[in-house]
């Protein structure tokens, strides 16, 4: 095994109290998931305590007991773990619940808990907790920053030991659905739902299922044309419907228990219902109806916008597109359709407002899409711990109702009683030895899973757990790495683009500073910077985007005075001389934030260097190199952004720093 096991490699622990339970694992009922749970416990106990636990069937009052129960409060996938006399009990209504309980027990031990403090009941907050891979069948990964795909190579599906280890990593943080292939479905990927690939898919599905994970695929809306030789993919054509029916029946015959499909339609060159003058509800419902008898779901992405649109018209605004397209369709989607919505209205920028579709549509299942692949946040070469950003999104009050109106309430189904809903993340894995390119990027995968399971966990708590599992519980290790993670997103925001404006990256690669780099900038620069100021006016005088929110959000975003400052330039064109609440002018804020961002990276690097004696050398060196690089790159960001705005504004830095 050339690769490492991220947070699933266990440190020896000295918790003596737990030893009394380490006589055997007892299971009353057995299936593949319970076997996985038992296997996980056995190997963890072996590594942590040096004890080999025998596995026994039948009831017992001693040892580690895996028990199926019938308790309403544990829901479908929840667990109750607790010590009881000479037994440590992991109890749940389903085998998945037992698996999650087993991983939690292991986690608590790794985090240094004593047996008496290990009782816990937890039911996952979100029904669906998914990872979306953008893996292509040639082995490349769209926006992949940690090597090649471990699912595909040369247009074949790989089935090897790593698939199981991936399932272990995902299940250990509560993931229960995985989309294998990129949403841009082309060529061979269109054929994934054909005979050629069923055998391997079946195998992957079996491995995933033994870790409580359902398999999903991304679908090409034009499959009837490309695979079926029809001349249309019109969702209302009987011929097209029948073709899909036969095809999807075949899929479910071959892959019973298959989760369903993720679809990107009418976006960035992908085909969709618009070609035929149909709505997205027509498209989604046609597919949903076909797979409904099998319990399948259609996850339909709301990332629909016209990248060719002409912005000289003042009301034209990419940010408006999702809401403008989907809001009028509220209530027309089938019950097994879920709309998957990116956290912001644009595209995973370091700072965006929350998409107004959350709480904007009240009668349509919704799912939150975030991106742990750091496409716009340093591409896994910079540390950028994204969990604090996701927490802000989840905690955002939409005001769609008087209470239970936060994004976390909506996507978990608490607001409107949905059961088809949840959270999805665009994956940051690849076949690098450490899975994530940057060792510290693993915290985003780990954190996303944990947060989707338990939205109440704090970013610090999640970081602490991940550090304990990965690097141990030494207080210095805990403190320094947690501090590095916690300042990384604000630092990245500081040295890149200011106050919510975004997009100051090189076109296509989406990496490195380029103030005018927005690739769809045919009609002037996205950020609208001139000699007097910058920012996009999205008030009613401008594009009108701010009005897509419920009040008071809409009212707040409408005016410069009430707009949250971190989003000021997203919503308003503001003069360089405008005074912010801290008394600084906008231009001075731009200079200061960029210098501060670099200083924060200096601190991050220093804190890592202090860990030289505590971290295994190869890992220490890998991270050190990346942090040194990050520091240099953050300076480049600072210099390019500051000099651009110095030249535009001709206002010098009041601290007289050298601006190149
Ligand atoms: O941000 C854009 C990315 C594309 C991606 C698209 C999407 C998979 O640059 O690479 O395509 O988002 O989310 O569909």
UniProtKB/TrEMBL annotation:
One of its GO terms (molecular function) is alpha-glucuronidase activity. Residues 111-435 form the Glycosyl hydrolase family 67 catalytic domain. It catalyses: Hydrolysis of (1->2)-alpha-D-(4-O-methyl)glucuronosyl links in the main chain of hardwood xylans. The active site is at 268 (proton donor), 347 (proton acceptor), 375 (proton acceptor). GO terms for biological process: xylan catabolic process. Residues 437-657 form the Glycosyl hydrolase family 67 C-terminal domain. GO terms for cellular component: extracellular region. Keywords: Carbohydrate metabolism, Glycosidase, Hydrolase, Polysaccharide degradation, Xylan degradation. SUPFAM superfamilies: (Trans)glycosidases, beta-N-acetylhexosaminidase-like domain. InterPro entries: A-glucoronidase_C_sf (IPR037054), GH (IPR017853), Glyco_hydro_67_aGlcAse (IPR011395), Glyco_hydro_67_aGlcAse_N (IPR005154), Glyco_hydro_67_C (IPR011099), Glyco_hydro_67_cat (IPR011100), Hex-like_dom2 (IPR029018). Residues 6-104 form the Alpha glucuronidase N-terminal domain. It comes from the Bacteria. Its EC number is 3.2.1.131. Homodimer. Belongs to the glycosyl hydrolase 67 family. This is Xylan alpha-1,2-glucuronidase. It comes from Anaerocolumna sedimenticola.
């Amino acid at each position: 095994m050339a690769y490492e096991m991220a947070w699933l490699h266990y440190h020896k622990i000295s918790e003596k109290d737990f030893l009394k339970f380490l006589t055997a694992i007892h299971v009353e009922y057995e299936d593949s998931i319970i076997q996985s749970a038992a296997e996980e416990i056995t190997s963890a106990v072996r590594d942590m305590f040096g004890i080999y636990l025998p596995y026994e069937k039948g009831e017992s009052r001693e040892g580690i007991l895996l028990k199926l129960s019938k308790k309403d409060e544990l829901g479908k996938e929840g667990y109750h773990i607790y010590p009881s006399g000479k037994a440590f009990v992991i109890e749940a209504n389903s085998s998945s619940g037992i698996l999650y309980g087993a991983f939690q027990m292991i986690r608590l031990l790794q985090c240094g808990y004593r047996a008496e403090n290990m009782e816990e009941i937890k039911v996952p907050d979100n029904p669906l907790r998914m990872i979306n891979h953008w893996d292509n069948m040639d082995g490349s990964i769209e926006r992949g920053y940690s090597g090649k795909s471990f699912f595909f190579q040369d247009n074949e599906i790989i089935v090897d030991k790593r698939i199981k280890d991936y399932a272990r990593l995902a299940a250990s943080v509560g993931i229960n659905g995985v989309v294998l292939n990129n949403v841009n479905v082309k060529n061979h990927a269109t054929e994934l739902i054909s005979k050629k690939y069923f055998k391997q898919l079946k195998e992957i599905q079996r491995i995933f299922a033994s870790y409580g994970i359902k398999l999903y695929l991304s679908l090409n809306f034009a499959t009837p044309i490309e695979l079926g030789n029809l001349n249309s993919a019109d969702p209302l054509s009987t011929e097209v419907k029948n073709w899909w029916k036969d095809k999807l029946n075949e899929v479910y015959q071959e892959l019973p228990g298959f989760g369903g499909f993720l679809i990107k339609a009418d976006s960035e060159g992908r085909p969709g219902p618009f070609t035929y003058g149909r709505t997205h509800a027509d498209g989604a419902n046609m597919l949903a109806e076909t797979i409904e008898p099998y319990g399948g779901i259609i996850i339909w992405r709301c990332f629909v916008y016209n990248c060719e649109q002409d912005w000289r018209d003042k009301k034209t605004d990419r940010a408006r597109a999702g809401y403008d397209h989907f809001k009028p369709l509220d209530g027309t989607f089938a019950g097994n359709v879920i709309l998957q919505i990116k956290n912001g209205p644009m595209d995973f920028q370091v700072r965006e407002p929350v998409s107004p579709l959350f709480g904007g549509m009240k009668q349509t299942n919704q799912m939150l899409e975030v991106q742990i692949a750091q496409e716009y946040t340093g591409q896994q070469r910079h540390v950028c711990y994204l969990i604090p950003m996701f927490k802000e999104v989840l905690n955002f009050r939409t005001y769609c109702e008087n209470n239970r109106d936060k994004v976390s309430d909506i996507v978990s189904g608490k607001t409107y009683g949905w059961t088809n809903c949840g959270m999805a993340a665009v994956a940051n894995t690849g076949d690098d030895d450490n899975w994530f390119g940057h060792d510290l990027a693993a915290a985003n995968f780990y954190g996303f899973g944990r947060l989707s399971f338990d939205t109440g966990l704090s970013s610090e708590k999640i970081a602490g757990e991940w550090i304990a599992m990965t690097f141990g519980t030494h207080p210095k290790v805990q403190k320094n790495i947690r501090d590095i993670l916690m300042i990384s997103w604000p630092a990245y925001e500081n040295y890149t683009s200011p106050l919510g404006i975004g997009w100051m990256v090189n076109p296509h690669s989406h990496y490195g500073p380029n103030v005018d780099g927005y690739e769809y900038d045919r009609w002037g620069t996205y950020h609208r910077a001139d000699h007097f100021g910058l920012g996009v006016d999205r008030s009613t005088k401008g594009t009108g985007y701010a009005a897509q929110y419920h009040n008071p959000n809409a009212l707040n975003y409408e005016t410069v005075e009430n707009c949250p400052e971190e989003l000021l330039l997203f919503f308003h064109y503001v003069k360089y001389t405008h005074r912010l609440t801290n008394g600084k002018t906008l231009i001075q804020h731009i200079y200061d934030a960029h210098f501060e961002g670099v200083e924060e990276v200096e601190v991050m690097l220093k804190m890592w260097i202090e860990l030289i004696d505590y971290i295994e050398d190869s890992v220490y060196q890998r991270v050190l190199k990346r942090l040194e690089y990050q520091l240099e790159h953050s300076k480049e960001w600072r210099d390019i952004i500051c000099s651009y705005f110095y030249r535009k504004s001709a206002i010098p830095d009041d601290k007289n720093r050298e601006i190149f």
